[in-house]
Automatic annotation (TrEMBL):
Family: Belongs to the serpin family.
Record text on subunit structure and interactions: Forms a heterodimer with TMPRSS7. Interacts with VTN. Binds LRP1B; binding is followed by internalization and degradation. Interacts with PPP1CB. In complex with PLAU/uPA, interacts with PLAUR/uPAR. Interacts with SORL1 and LRP1, either alone or in complex with PLAU; these interactions are abolished in the presence of LRPAP1/RAP. The ternary complex composed of PLAUR-PLAU-PAI1 also interacts with SORL1. Interacts with PLAT/tPA. Also interacts with SORL1, when complexed to PLAT/tPA.
GO terms (BP aspect): negative regulation of plasminogen activation; negative regulation of vascular wound healing
Extent of the signal sequence: 1-30
UniProt GO cellular component terms: extracellular space
Domain Serpin residues, every copy: 42-401
UniProt name for this protein: Plasminogen activator inhibitor 1
Gene Ontology MF terms in the entry: serine-type endopeptidase inhibitor activity
Superkingdom in the source lineage: Eukaryota
Length: 404
């Protein structure tokens, strides 16, 4: 599924462009910051999914909270208070930049995960010392000078930065016309994940099966299958919807994919999305038990582009886009700034060997033995989590698998 980006008209005053690129990351073990970031990222996904019923959608909760954290470092006055209130944490508070740095370090040190933060600033802008120091402390990022008076050239610079840090999965992140001579700053977070399943699916067992899509469609898709012991649990939502969670581990065991689906084919995934919170994900992982299962999972890939402006505005953060109200004087006092766009692009490929994501989506499974089957032949959610930090790197809803 490909979502077209809708670009807003830039603010009339100078604009601060924030570009959210996929992120696969986590945070200091069980820290307050990680929990609040995960909750915020899940809320953004939940809100964005409301406008995509019946479609595939993938996002990176970690990437969203990282870039919004960078935005927060430049905010002042009522803009800062609004960001703190709706995000549930402040990176301007004592000790928080260090927690952010440790979280990013823990994720980046994980085999198969690459995390990077970038700051592209117009060469004419003089950044406040405190903002530069905070970026360095929290994100280990040093501003890179560019020339926004030549937006097409700068677009190429940014796109190659992203491509280099996403295993070339996202070669053209910014489209022509997104940057302008009014752009002063672009804040970036890139995340790349390449994980092999702990137990790969045997391609010889992959076969076409029917998938019952969200819109009532029934289509044949390649279904992978494997029989092994999985962590598995059954749960009930507050509204009485029965669903289950199965965990598929990646090599090394510190990363895994959680597959969440309702028992009943007719229940939309939106009923399960309502359940999402960092404490709910922790509750799942604590209560899962080892069972022998034959897992049947579609091979799938997702390419999502999301403009988060309307989503964040609905969540109460509209002031950052408002030229009359936005206060980013911690970035520079030379001219007023506001945010023009917050964009995220996530690409995920799930196959028999594992998952590659520059943001996220995956599912796969099938069998030879008379073991109870777990067939994901209906819409489901997936979350890719970093278990040591409980960070959700990627998540998505699969309403209609697409494989290439």
């Amino acid at each position: 599924e490909r979502h077209d980006l809708i670009f807003s008209r830039p603010c009339r005053m100078q604009t601060l462009c924030v570009f959210l690129i996929l992120a696969i990351c986590g945070s200091a073990l069980g820290s307050f910051l990680q929990k609040q970031q995960t909750d915020f990222g899940l809320r953004v996904f939940s809100e964005a999914s409301r406008s995509q019923p019946g479609k595939n959608l993938a996002m990176s909760p970690y990437g969203i909270s990282s870039v919004m954290g960078m935005v927060q470092l430049g905010a002042y006055g009522s803009t800062l208070k609004t960001l703190q209130a709706h995000m549930g944490y402040s990176l301007q508070e004592r000790g928080m930049p260090r927690q952010q740095r440790i979280l990013q370090r823990d994720l980046d040190s994980e085999h198969g995960v690459e995390v990077a933060s970038g700051v592209m600033v117009d060469r004419k802008v003089i950044l406040e010392k405190h903002f530069r120091r905070s970026l360095s402390k929290a994100f280990q990022s040093v501003p890179h000078q560019v020339d926004f008076s030549q937006p097409e050239i700068t677009q190429q610079v940014i796109n190659s930065w992203v491509s280099d840090r996403t295993g070339a999965m996202i070669p053209n992140f910014l489209q022509s016309g997104v940057l302008s001579k009014q752009t002063r700053l672009v804040l970036l977070n890139a995340l790349h994940f390449h994980g092999l399943w702990k137990t790969p699916f045997d391609p010889k067992l992959t076969m076409e099966m029917l998938f019952y899509g969200a819109n009532g469609s029934v289509v044949p898709v390649p279904m992978m299958r494997t029989t092994q012991k999985f962590n598995y649990g059954e749960f009930v939502t507050e509204e009485g919807v029965d669903y289950d969670v199965i965990e598929v581990p990646y090599e090394g065991d510190s990363l895994s994919m959680l597959l969440v689906s309702s028992f009943d084919r007719d229940v939309p995934v939106s009923n399960l999305i309502k359940e999402l919170s960092s404490s709910k994900v922790q509750e799942w992982t604590k209560q899962l038990k080892k069972v022998n299962r034959q897992l049947v999972l579609p091979r799938f890939s997702i390419d999502s582009e999301v403009d988060l402006k309307s989503t964040l505005s609905t969540l109460g953060l509209g002031d950052i886009f408002n030229q009359a109200k936005a206060d980013f004087s911690r970035i520079t006092t030379e001219e007023p700034l506001c945010v023009s766009d917050i964009l995220q692009r996530v690409k995920i490929e799930v196959n028999e060997e594992g998952t590659q994501g520059s943001s996220a989506t995956a599912a796969i499974i099938y069998s030879r033995m008379a073991v109870e089957e777990h067939i994901l032949d209906r819409p489901f959610l997936f979350l890719i989590q970093h278990k040591p930090t409980d960070s959700v790197l990627f998540m998505g809803q699969i309403n209609q698998p697409q494989s290439h």
